Amino acid sequence: MGKDSFIGGYFKHFGQVAFDPAIEPMLLKAAGLLKEVQRAGRKVIFVGNGASATIASHCALDFTKQAGIRSICFNDAALLTAYGNDYGYEWWVEQALKHYADPGDLVVLLSSSGKSKNILHAAHYARKRRLKVITLSGFASDNPLRALGHVNLWADSRAYNAVETAHMLWLVALCDLVIGTREYSVR
Hints:
187 residues, 7 helices, 54% helix
Protein backbone atom coordinates (compact mmCIF):
# COMPACT_ATOMS: atom_id res chain seq x y z
CA MET A 1 0.00 0.00 0.00
CA GLY A 2 1.43 3.36 -0.98
CA LYS A 3 1.53 6.36 1.33
CA ASP A 4 -1.16 8.17 -0.66
CA SER A 5 -3.62 5.30 -0.35
CA PHE A 6 -2.78 4.88 3.36
CA ILE A 7 -3.51 8.55 4.10
CA GLY A 8 -6.69 8.51 2.02
CA GLY A 9 -7.95 5.41 3.79
CA TYR A 10 -6.88 6.79 7.15
CA PHE A 11 -8.86 10.01 6.71
CA LYS A 12 -11.82 8.13 5.30
CA HIS A 13 -11.91 5.92 8.41
CA PHE A 14 -11.68 8.95 10.72
CA GLY A 15 -14.55 10.55 8.83
CA GLN A 16 -16.72 7.46 9.05
CA VAL A 17 -16.12 7.17 12.80
CA ALA A 18 -16.44 10.83 13.79
CA PHE A 19 -19.24 11.77 11.43
CA ASP A 20 -21.49 8.73 11.87
CA PRO A 21 -25.04 10.14 11.43
CA ALA A 22 -26.25 7.97 14.34
CA ILE A 23 -24.27 10.15 16.76
CA GLU A 24 -26.26 13.36 16.15
CA PRO A 25 -29.33 12.47 18.28
CA MET A 26 -27.00 11.33 21.07
CA LEU A 27 -25.13 14.63 20.94
CA LEU A 28 -28.42 16.54 21.16
CA LYS A 29 -29.43 14.48 24.20
CA ALA A 30 -26.02 15.10 25.80
CA ALA A 31 -26.37 18.84 25.12
CA GLY A 32 -29.69 18.75 26.94
CA LEU A 33 -28.02 17.23 30.02
CA LEU A 34 -25.26 19.84 29.89
CA LYS A 35 -27.78 22.68 29.68
CA GLU A 36 -29.67 21.22 32.68
CA VAL A 37 -26.44 21.25 34.67
CA GLN A 38 -25.73 24.81 33.55
CA ARG A 39 -29.23 26.05 34.52
CA ALA A 40 -28.99 24.34 37.91
CA GLY A 41 -25.57 25.85 38.63
CA ARG A 42 -24.03 22.40 39.05
CA LYS A 43 -20.72 21.20 37.64
CA VAL A 44 -19.33 18.72 35.13
CA ILE A 45 -16.55 16.34 36.13
CA PHE A 46 -14.47 14.97 33.24
CA VAL A 47 -12.35 11.83 33.73
CA GLY A 48 -10.19 9.72 31.43
CA ASN A 49 -6.89 7.85 31.35
CA GLY A 50 -3.90 8.63 29.14
CA ALA A 51 -4.88 10.56 26.02
CA SER A 52 -8.47 10.59 27.28
CA ALA A 53 -7.22 12.45 30.35
CA THR A 54 -5.81 15.19 28.14
CA ILE A 55 -9.14 15.39 26.29
CA ALA A 56 -10.87 15.63 29.69
CA SER A 57 -8.55 18.46 30.72
CA HIS A 58 -9.06 20.38 27.48
CA CYS A 59 -12.84 20.03 27.68
CA ALA A 60 -13.08 20.98 31.35
CA LEU A 61 -11.36 24.24 30.45
CA ASP A 62 -13.51 24.92 27.38
CA PHE A 63 -16.80 24.11 29.10
CA THR A 64 -15.89 26.41 32.00
CA LYS A 65 -14.34 29.31 30.12
CA GLN A 66 -16.32 29.26 26.89
CA ALA A 67 -19.69 27.65 27.70
CA GLY A 68 -20.01 28.94 31.26
CA ILE A 69 -20.50 25.50 32.80
CA ARG A 70 -18.29 25.04 35.85
CA SER A 71 -16.16 21.99 35.05
CA ILE A 72 -13.25 20.11 36.55
CA CYS A 73 -11.14 17.13 35.61
CA PHE A 74 -9.23 14.71 37.78
CA ASN A 75 -5.80 15.19 36.18
CA ASP A 76 -3.84 16.74 39.03
CA ALA A 77 -0.78 14.56 39.67
CA ALA A 78 -1.08 14.86 43.45
CA LEU A 79 -4.77 13.89 43.39
CA LEU A 80 -4.22 10.94 41.07
CA THR A 81 -1.17 9.58 42.87
CA ALA A 82 -2.55 10.07 46.38
CA TYR A 83 -5.91 8.49 45.57
CA GLY A 84 -4.27 5.74 43.52
CA ASN A 85 -1.85 4.99 46.35
CA ASP A 86 -4.47 5.07 49.10
CA TYR A 87 -7.40 3.34 47.35
CA GLY A 88 -5.81 1.45 44.43
CA TYR A 89 -5.77 2.51 40.81
CA GLU A 90 -9.02 0.71 39.97
CA TRP A 91 -10.87 2.65 42.69
CA TRP A 92 -9.28 6.10 42.71
CA VAL A 93 -11.87 7.77 40.44
CA GLU A 94 -14.77 6.46 42.52
CA GLN A 95 -13.10 7.75 45.68
CA ALA A 96 -12.43 11.14 44.09
CA LEU A 97 -16.10 11.34 43.06
CA LYS A 98 -17.07 10.65 46.69
CA HIS A 99 -15.13 13.75 47.69
CA TYR A 100 -15.84 16.08 44.75
CA ALA A 101 -19.23 15.22 43.23
CA ASP A 102 -22.34 16.98 44.50
CA PRO A 103 -25.99 16.14 43.83
CA GLY A 104 -27.00 17.35 40.38
CA ASP A 105 -23.50 17.13 38.92
CA LEU A 106 -22.74 15.45 35.60
CA VAL A 107 -19.85 13.02 35.16
CA VAL A 108 -18.26 12.59 31.70
CA LEU A 109 -16.26 9.37 31.54
CA LEU A 110 -13.90 8.59 28.66
CA SER A 111 -12.39 5.18 27.91
CA SER A 112 -11.37 4.17 24.41
CA SER A 113 -11.88 0.48 25.14
CA GLY A 114 -14.80 0.97 27.49
CA LYS A 115 -13.11 -1.52 29.81
CA SER A 116 -10.96 0.64 32.11
CA LYS A 117 -11.79 -0.60 35.60
CA ASN A 118 -11.33 2.79 37.28
CA ILE A 119 -13.78 4.35 34.82
CA LEU A 120 -16.27 1.49 35.17
CA HIS A 121 -16.21 1.72 38.97
CA ALA A 122 -16.75 5.47 38.69
CA ALA A 123 -19.74 4.96 36.38
CA HIS A 124 -21.36 2.50 38.77
CA TYR A 125 -20.77 4.84 41.69
CA ALA A 126 -22.13 7.85 39.82
CA ARG A 127 -25.29 5.98 38.81
CA LYS A 128 -25.79 4.73 42.38
CA ARG A 129 -25.49 8.35 43.60
CA ARG A 130 -27.97 9.51 40.93
CA LEU A 131 -25.42 11.68 39.16
CA LYS A 132 -25.97 12.14 35.44
CA VAL A 133 -23.41 10.26 33.34
CA ILE A 134 -22.19 10.69 29.77
CA THR A 135 -19.83 7.98 28.53
CA LEU A 136 -17.49 8.06 25.56
CA SER A 137 -16.03 4.77 24.42
CA GLY A 138 -15.04 2.82 21.33
CA PHE A 139 -13.78 -0.58 20.24
CA ALA A 140 -16.36 -3.35 20.85
CA SER A 141 -20.01 -2.36 20.54
CA ASP A 142 -20.77 -4.34 23.69
CA ASN A 143 -18.06 -2.79 25.87
CA PRO A 144 -19.31 -2.47 29.46
CA LEU A 145 -19.02 1.33 29.72
CA ARG A 146 -21.39 1.82 26.81
CA ALA A 147 -24.29 0.53 28.94
CA LEU A 148 -23.70 2.74 31.98
CA GLY A 149 -24.44 6.31 30.90
CA HIS A 150 -27.58 8.33 30.49
CA VAL A 151 -25.99 9.12 27.14
CA ASN A 152 -23.43 6.76 25.63
CA LEU A 153 -21.32 8.07 22.75
CA TRP A 154 -19.62 5.17 21.00
CA ALA A 155 -16.95 5.39 18.28
CA ASP A 156 -17.16 2.42 15.93
CA SER A 157 -13.44 1.73 15.59
CA ARG A 158 -10.65 -0.27 17.16
CA ALA A 159 -8.05 2.36 16.28
CA TYR A 160 -7.11 4.42 19.35
CA ASN A 161 -6.42 7.57 17.36
CA ALA A 162 -9.75 7.42 15.53
CA VAL A 163 -11.68 6.79 18.76
CA GLU A 164 -9.90 9.54 20.69
CA THR A 165 -10.23 12.01 17.82
CA ALA A 166 -13.95 11.30 17.56
CA HIS A 167 -14.33 11.80 21.33
CA MET A 168 -12.53 15.13 21.18
CA LEU A 169 -14.54 16.31 18.19
CA TRP A 170 -17.85 15.29 19.78
CA LEU A 171 -17.03 17.03 23.06
CA VAL A 172 -15.95 20.31 21.46
CA ALA A 173 -19.06 20.14 19.25
CA LEU A 174 -21.12 19.80 22.44
CA CYS A 175 -19.39 22.82 23.91
CA ASP A 176 -20.18 24.89 20.82
CA LEU A 177 -23.73 23.55 20.76
CA VAL A 178 -24.25 24.76 24.34
CA ILE A 179 -22.73 28.13 23.42
CA GLY A 180 -24.92 28.26 20.30
CA THR A 181 -22.25 29.05 17.72
CA ARG A 182 -18.99 27.65 16.39
CA GLU A 183 -17.30 31.03 16.08
CA TYR A 184 -16.82 33.28 19.11
CA SER A 185 -14.27 35.41 20.89
CA VAL A 186 -12.03 33.71 23.45
CA ARG A 187 -11.49 36.77 25.63
